[in-house]
Design a protein that fits this description.
CATH class of the largest domain: Alpha Beta
Bound molecules: 5-amino-5-deoxy-1-O-phosphono-D-mannitol
Distance between the termini: 11 Å
Strand content: 15-25%
Helix content: 25-40%
Structural class: alpha/beta
């Protein structure tokens, strides 16, 4: 949830850290702070609110030039989002400073221990105990102190610390929370993700679970919490700094919406080999394992859960394997029936969502195999899974997910086809035909983007609406859920998605004069479903709803009942979500902007939810 940057090298640390925090602000924006070491003192500047407040503070009260230190941008868990609780946190002697992402679950006991020893804590955070514990343990070696402290901590944490008495060393630690090393030339970096240092280096080092890293300008040492040297994986980041810039758009979200054709194309790249067979990225499951699967369970949160709902349709249709889809946060608490023949598919843009990670661990403990669909190379979820299909959406900075959703839909269809291929359910020419359908998607999305002008106008017209309902059937239902989620998180409006058939079982009571209702109409080729939803549109219109209808081009049957008709290209039913969601993304973005809200950083949210 929080964003962390650490640096040691030749440049002025404040410049490097502030640059990194700007790129990480999407992870949390309740407060921000930096710490540098100058002489024998740790100096801290921190301020509640967005990074701009810290920038102003630094302009009024500059820090001296220094070459090592760290920064933090916060999504509050323990303690209100005020100056006092902003990171970095210091010990009483102001020798050690700490920033943290995660939750230290046993902080109350640790706090009592410190208070019993006469320590006065200055904040309400769980983090502050770590600075005092580090001070207590420090004997000239901060990494050693960090290892000792980590062994006492429970919960999820990324920690970064500096000590005034150990110059030119920055120490980090991680358990269940992300931290990546960036290797430079005569300088090294730490970041919650690679965007923290992508402006300086693309050479990254993935840290494992329960590891401590000691960073100097010319070396990086990684050990376990027990002090054993640890193996790490080095890799090159395959995108550059410009990918994490707004590139002339008003918002990252808008830029990311317009990047969708490319993101989809990139996710499809190189999937068919010379023999016409489908290939996935890291398939550490044998064909025999996959032929043995008798049930699939898909888990994810938010938007990723919605892609999972779409996956159920394609996997069951193409492979006839029964599929369950579940919100990851609920999964392990209901004692799900899992076994060796269950394949769990975990979908996550960030690869760090704690609810999903915990669900994966539970599934593996029960003997199930896990296939991850993920956008971030080197993140925890793919690392802890048996197989990975990467989405190649590039960095998604806006809190509201857009291009990740489209690429997840492509990836789940690829997985469905792969399973069908391995299990002999489809011949290679059939698979090739479906892959051709997928390959036509970038152009179809481009066409939607060329025609969204009226959707923007509609959003501005509806700026004062109190609520919006979304209806869909079949794969249109997850689109309805996703459209509603976008509106909730960006425009802070009451928005609900329903399966259209459920309408008369309750939700129709919500319909009143002028209520905007978005309806996603199945393709004409699905005649029975199509006709049923046309009846639903008439039912709500008769009760005063303002109907906003998304239907395929050339579908004239819906026009008489649509107050606003949004045509999208005709595509195969299972791919309709790819084109139908785009106008709804634009709608939510425009409505939030019309209300004057922060499109990229909606209130109370953070991009990666790394706490349960
Ligand atoms: O990184 P993940 O895909 O695991 O994130 C899951 C959700 O937190 C995420 O999709 C969230 O719902 C988005 N803000 C929705 O726009």
């Amino acid at each position: 949830m929080c964003g962390i940057v650490g640096y040691v090298g030749q440049q002025n640390v404040v410049d490097v850290v502030m640059g990194g925090l700007r790129r990480l602000e999407y992870r949390g924006y309740d407060s921000a702070g930096v710490a540098v070491v100058a002489g024998d003192e740790v100096l801290v500047r921190r301020r509640a609110g967005k990074l701009a407040n810290l920038e102003k503070l630094l302009a009024d009260k500059p820090l001296p030039a220094a070459t090592f230190g760290m920064g933090h941008t916060r999504w509050a868990t323990h303690g209100a989002p005020n100056d006092r609780n902003a990171h970095p946190h210091l010990d009483e002697a102001a020798k050690v400073a700490v920033v943290h992402n995660g939750i230290i679950e046993n902080f109350a006991a640790l706090r009592s221990h410190l208070e019993d020893n006469g320590v006065t804590l200055a904040s309400d955070t769980d983090t502050e105990v770590v600075s005092h514990l580090l001070a207590e343990q420090f004997d000239g070696d901060l990494a050693e102190a960090m290892r000792a402290v980590c062994r006492k901590l429970e919960g999820a944490f990324t920690l970064v610390a500096v000590h005034a008495d150990q110059p030119d060393v920055v120490v980090g630690a991680r358990r269940n929370s992300p931290l990546v090393v960036g290797r430079g030339d005569g300088e090294n970096f730490l970041g919650s993700d690679v965007s923290a240092f992508i402006a300086h280096t693309r050479h990254a080092v993935e840290l494992g679970q329960d590891q401590v890293v000691e960073l100097r300008a010319d070396r990086v040492d990684v050990t376990t919490f027990d002090g054993q040297p640890a193996e790490v994986r080095e890799y090159e980041v395959d995108w550059d700094a410009s990918a994490a810039e707004k590139g002339g758009y008003d918002y990252f979200m808008l830029k990311e919406i317009y990047e969708q054709p490319k993101a989809v194309a990139d996710t499809l790249l190189g999937r068919i080999d010379d023999e016409g067979l489908l290939q996935l990225d890291e398939m550490r499951l044998s064909d025999e394992d996959l032929r043995d699967v008798d049930k699939i369970v898909i888990i994810g949160c938010g938007t990723a859960f919605h892609s999972g709902l779409i996956a159920k349709y394609s996997i069951e249709h193409w492979t006839r394997i029964p599929v369950e889809v579940e919100v990851a946060s609920e999964f392990r608490y209901r004692d799900p029936i899992l076994g060796r023949r269950t394949l769990v598919i975990a979908i996550s843009q960030s690869g760090e969502t704690m609810d999903t990670l915990m669900a994966i661990r539970h599934a593996r403990e029960q003997g199930s195999r896990v296939l991850a669909i993920c956008n971030v190379n080197g993140s925890t979820i793919p690392r802890e899974s048996d197989a990975v299909v990467y989405t190649y959406a590039g960095p998604e900075i806006a809190v509201a997910s857009t291009k990740a959703f489209l690429t997840q839909i492509i990836a789940v269809h690829l997985v469905a086809l792969y399973l069908a291929q391995v299990r002999g359910m489809k011949w290679s020419d059939e698979i090739a035909r479906h892959v051709d359908d997928l390959a036509a998607m970038p152009e179809a999305v481009d066409r939607v983007l060329d025609t969204v002008g009226p959707v923007r106008a509609l959003a501005r017209e509806l700026v004062d609406a109190r609520a919006v309902l979304f209806l869909g059937r079949h794969v249109g239902f997850p689109v309805a859920l996703e459209g509603a989620l976008k509106l909730k998180e960006l425009a802070y409006m009451h928005a609900e998605g329903f399966p259209a058939g459920e309408l008369k079982h309750g939700p129709i009571a919500l319909i009143e004069e002028g209520l905007p209702v978005v309806v996603v109409v199945p393709p004409l080729s699905r005649k029975v479903l199509h006709d049923k939803i046309v009846s639903n549109i008439q039912e709500i219109r008769a009760r005063g709803a303002r109907t906003i209808v998304i239907a395929e081009e050339g579908d004239d049957t819906v026009a008489p009942y649509a107050d606003t008709l949004i045509p999208v290209p005709a595509v195969p039913t299972l791919l309709q979500p790819v084109v139908a969601i785009v106008p709804l993304q634009v709608f939510a973005c425009e409505l939030a902007s019309a209300k004057g809200y922060d499109v990229d950083q909606p209130r109370n949210l953070a991009k990666s939810v790394t706490v349960e």
